[in-house]
Each structure stands twice: as C-alpha cells, then as structure tokens.
C-alpha cells in the first residue's frame, strides 16, 4: 500500500466512535456474503482499556486474491456505495489487526497495521470450508468512553440500527444472517449491567415493515422515494428509528425524539431512494447533500412521518389539539405562530419558544423597515395589538398573584406586588418600568404619572410637587404609595396627586380604622400646596372590610359606592392650621381588598376578551385563505 496508513486514518476518520470498528468489520463480512458472524469481546476490566480485544469470525468467502488486492489498495472500489477506506478506522483504536482467512483449501494470513504494504502468507491447507477471523489487539486509547460500546445487548441495538436497511433488504430476499456477540470480563460491574453475556441478532426475526412510495419534484430528481415503516405497541422494548438509508447504512435524521411519542411503542421510519447512493461522507456518519437540499428532504420525510403517526396513534392528534388549545388560551398574543403540524406530540416549551421567535422576527422586520408598505403597515397594526395583548396577559398574572394573598401575608407582600417598596418611577423610564409598576390596579389613568414614590418620605413627595427642596416636618411613617401626575405636564406646573395606604388582611378594628387617620394626616401636609402647586388630590385606603369595620365607616357617614365589592367614600373637612382654622374639603376612598382586586380584574378582562376574539377572527380568516 503506497500510502501512510496512519495519516490516512486520521484524515478520513478524525473522531470515530469505537462502535465504528465493529460496524466496518461487519460490513466487510456481509460483503463477503457471510451468513454467520461471531463477535467476541474480551477485557479484564472496564478500567483497564489496554486489555481490550475483539475477535470477529465469519463464514464468508474469505480473502481470495481479488478481495485481498482490493484490501491492499486504498480507495479502490467498483461500486458507488463503497468508499474503499473503512478498514482504516481499525487503526484508530488498535495497533494491529491479525487476519486469518480460509478459502478453496487455502489459508491467507497477514497483519494490518500502520506500516502495512500488502505483505501476507498464502498456504495450502487441508481444512474444508471458508471464512475469516479478525483479531484486534493492542488497544491504545487511554479509556473506553462508554460501557455500551462493549455490552452485547447495547451493541446489538446499535448494529441493528446502523445496518437496518441492509438487514431488512436481506430479510425480504430470505437471506440468512445471524450475528452473535459475546462479552468476557474478569471484573464485572452490575451497577452498569456489565458482566459476561451473550446476545444474538437474527435478521429473520426482524419486524415486517409497511411501505409507501411517492415522488417529490421539488427535489429535482426522478427517482421515487420509499418510506419503510413500522408503528406498533411494545411495552417491553420501546425503540425509535428515524433515518435515511444510504449505501445499506442508516444516517440518523432528527425528526422526533422519544419524548414526542406516547410510551410503549416500537417505531421505525426509513427513507430510501437511489438518489442517495454514494451521498455520504467517508465515515458514513453524515449526508453530503447541500443545506437547502437536506432541508427539503428532511421536511418531506417529516411531513410523511407526521401523517402516518397521526393515523397509527390517534392519541397524538388528540393530545396535540389539547396542547395547542392550552397554548392559544395561555398565550393568545402568539395565536397563529404555533406550529399545528408538528411531528409526534408537540413539545410545549419548544413550540412556545419557536412562536416567540417568529413574533420577534416580525417585530424586527417592521422596526427595521425604512418605509412602510401597505402590507407592513397592516402587519405593524397586528404586532401592536399582539404587544398590547402580551401586556394585558402580564396584568392577568399580577391579578392572579394578588388573589393568592391572605391573612398570612404581610402588608409588604401586597405592597411589593403593586409597586416594589423603596422604588421611584419616572415617566422618562416608563417602558423599562412597565412590567414592575402596577399602578393600573387602582386605575389605568394613573399610568400617566410623572413620578411614583413607593414607601418614600413625605419630603421626597413635596420635592416632586414643588420642584424644589423644602424643609418640612417629617412624618414618622412614609406614605405607602404616592403618585404625582398631570393631564398635561408640559403646559402647567400644577400637578395631581394620589396617596394610597395599604393594610394587611385580618387586622383588628383599631388598626383598620387607622387607615382613615393616616389619609387625613397626608391630606393636612399636602393641602398646604393647594391650589398653587396641587390642583387635585385623591386619597385611597385599601383594607380588609369586614362587618365590624363596615359599621364603623357607616357611623362616620361614609357612603357606599357602586363596585364589585365594598367601596366607601366621604368628603372630609381638613383644618390646615390651628390659627386660621381654615377648612378644605377632601375626598377619602376606603375600598376593600376584594374591590381593589375585582375591579382591576374586570377592567383587564374587558381588554383581554376583546383582543382574544380579534385574534380568533384573524386566525380563522387566515386558515380560510390557505
């Protein structure tokens, strides 16, 4: 062999798996028309890889002169589905392979190693029969990467998968092939199922496959495509094979995973066509189709598999309908982006991720456009609606979180859901704060704020109102939430102010009544700036209103207002100072926690239902056009 064998092995097989050594040896035996192959694996211990050896024996025609000549000359092949280099992978793991071959009462022996140049011995023998034995010795890797590479049962499955098309073709022709795999070890490891064992693969026992044949002109070829498949229940031995058959081997294609099919099924899908002949790399691990071509082939294969699975396993279609309904109900702003033609059971997380990615790409397309065509204009309107829906859904999450509040929660728990404590929000940062500032819970008009102060001192609030620092007597306690806003802050320095006091659920009467006192104290401080700096003020107390507290409010002449629960209002007269005793009327609202929550939920539900119906109608129109 006029070539550096080791360099050639590194070139053609840079990172092969140990299994490939066995695959290539089996392929050579099958090429030699063997009907029986014995594989003996010997290793003292998994932790002693240097003791590993393979002995592979077959009853094929052996290394006759022509076969040996081809073996000795790299890349010499006569068939398009052969590469002529498979034997090089032997030297990626073993320093030498000793070969003994019998045929026509002759015995040929040679050693395949890094300096092999065709030397061999050919002797006459009285032995009858034919066959070849390969002994793989001097394993030189520092470890064996997986127990499965040398366990008989695991190897049986790998061999069956790798050669499934070839084995099935032989089965159809009633050709026999039995492969026996044996493991001998001095140091078994029961935790890993590693022990002396034997497993047999008999192709006559392979399941019979159904077949569909079709043509696909989009691939620009005239050869038919054939899919051989089997879908049957097998609770004891679940398996999944989706592959393209090339040159008698299987090239795995990632169409679906075991998680996408119900438990307890044995599934095989193989795509055949003469078009694929020779279109595989030297290690037979990857197709050499172009990217676009491979995408087309994969999509065709995927669609056919989906059709067959939906027919054979009705549960898949039923489950997918449930998942899609759940996704559309939970994420209506992504309606129309979910893939309803997935192969197997839809992966909910992946489907959501893909839908979000599609939505983001369409947003990007609109934002990156230098001018809006009519089509882009319509798309921008749709995207705006979807973004609004996304925000309304976020609001729904906040409402549901507040529904979980009970008497075991602190006032801080309620406070932090509405607006995080010790935070200051400015209108200039509105978009960034949109998903943490929930002032809309009280009223949507309060989202037009200039500033929101959460659990901040009164002097900070006064500074916001007067636009300058003023020395004032500081309160011992800070207002829970203060909102400063104006209908048109660009034209007036006068502002509107909202003061909110919160109380935890389950308090006694005295502490509930304290909310009214606190609101009056805030009013007294702020009315000093009315009407020069403040044009309107709203005071809200949010508290758990039970029968006892309701009686107290009625005694104080609070009026019951219309709401989904209990809301009371009273106009108080507040005296600013002792000397003048000037009275200014102030309106105080006291609302139950349930009224605060349910009113917000009702308002949000109106938006939510309106947008949902809009997307449903749009989705129905799109489907009718397709």
Automatic annotation (TrEMBL):
InterPro entries: HATPase_C_sf. SUPFAM superfamilies: ATPase domain of HSP90 chaperone/DNA topoisomerase II/histidine kinase. Gene3D superfamilies: Histidine kinase-like ATPase, C-terminal domain (3.30.565.10). GO terms for molecular function: ATP binding. Keywords: ATP-binding, Nucleotide-binding. It comes from the Bacteria. This is ATP-binding protein. It comes from Wocania arenilitoris.
């Amino acid at each position: 062999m006029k070539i550096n064998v080791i360099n050639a092995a590194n070139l053609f097989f840079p990172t092969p798996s140990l299994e490939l050594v066995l695959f290539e040896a089996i392929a050579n035996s099958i090429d030699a028309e063997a009907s029986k192959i014995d594989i003996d694996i010997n290793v003292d211990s998994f932790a002693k890889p240097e003791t590993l050896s393979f002995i592979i024996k077959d009853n094929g025609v052996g290394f006759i002169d022509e076969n040996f000549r081809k073996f000795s000359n790299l890349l010499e092949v006569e068939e398009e589905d052969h590469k002529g280099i498979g034997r090089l992978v032997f030297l990626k793991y073993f320093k030498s392979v000793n070969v003994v071959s019998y045929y026509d009462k002759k015995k040929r022996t040679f050693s395949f190693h890094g300096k092999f140049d065709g030397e061999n011995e050919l002797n006459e023998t009285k032995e009858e029969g034919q066959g070849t034995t390969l002994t793989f010795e001097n394993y030189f890797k520092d470890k064996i990467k997986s127990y499965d590479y040398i366990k008989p049962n695991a190897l049986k499955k790998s061999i069956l998968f790798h050669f499934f098309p070839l084995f099935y073709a032989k089965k159809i022709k009633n050709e026999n092939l039995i492969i026996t795999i044996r493991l001998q070890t001095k140091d078994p490891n029961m935790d890993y199922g590693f022990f002396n064992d034997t497993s047999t693969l008999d192709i006559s026992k392979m399941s019979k496959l159904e077949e569909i044949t079709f043509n696909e002109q989009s691939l620009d070829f005239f050869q038919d495509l054939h899919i051989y498949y089997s879908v049957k229940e097998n609770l004891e031995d679940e398996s999944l094979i989706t592959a393209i058959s090339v040159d008698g081997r299987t090239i795995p294609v990632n169409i679906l995973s075991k998680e996408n099919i119900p438990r307890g099924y044995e599934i095989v899908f193989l795509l055949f066509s003469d078009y694929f002949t020779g279109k595989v790399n030297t290690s037979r691990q990857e197709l050499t189709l172009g990217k676009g071509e491979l995408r087309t082939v994969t999509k065709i294969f995927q669609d056919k598999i989906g059709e067959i699975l939906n027919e054979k396993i009705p549960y898949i279609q039923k489950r997918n309908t449930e998942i899609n309904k759940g996704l559309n109900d939970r994420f209506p702003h992504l309606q129309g982006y979910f893939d309803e033609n997935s192969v197997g059971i839809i992966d909910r997380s992946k489907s959501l991720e893909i839908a979000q990615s599609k939505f983001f790409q369409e947003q990007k397309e609109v934002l990156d456009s230098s001018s809006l065509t009519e089509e882009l204009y319509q798309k921008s309107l749709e995207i705006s609606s979807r973004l609004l829906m996304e925000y309304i859904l976020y609001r729904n999450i906040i409402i549901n979180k507040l529904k979980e509040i009970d008497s075991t929660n602190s006032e801080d728990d309620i406070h932090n859901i509405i607006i995080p404590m010790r935070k200051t929000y400015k209108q200039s940062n509105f978009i960034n704060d949109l998903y943490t500032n929930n002032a809309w819970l009280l009223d949507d008009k309060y989202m037009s704020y200039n500033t929101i102060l959460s659990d901040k001192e009164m002097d900070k609030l006064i500074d916001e109102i007067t636009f300058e620092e003023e020395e004032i007597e500081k309160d011992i306690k800070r207002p829970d939430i203060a909102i400063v806003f104006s209908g048109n802050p660009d034209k007036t320095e006068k502002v509107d102010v909202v003061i909110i006091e919160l109380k935890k659920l389950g308090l006694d009467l005295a502490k509930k009544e304290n909310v009214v006192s606190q609101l009056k104290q805030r009013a007294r401080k702020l009315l000093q700036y009315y009407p020069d700096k403040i044009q309107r003020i709203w005071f809200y107390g949010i508290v758990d209103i039970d029968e006892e507290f309701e009686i107290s409010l009625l005694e104080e002449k609070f009026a019951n207002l219309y709401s989904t629960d209990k809301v009371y209002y009273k106009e108080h007269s507040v005296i600013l100072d002792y000397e003048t005793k000037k009275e200014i009327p102030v309106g105080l609202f006291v609302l139950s926690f349930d009224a605060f929550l349910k009113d917000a939920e009702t308002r949000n539900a109106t938006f939510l239902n309106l947008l949902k119906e809009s997307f449903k109608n749009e989705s129905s129109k799109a489907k009718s056009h397709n």
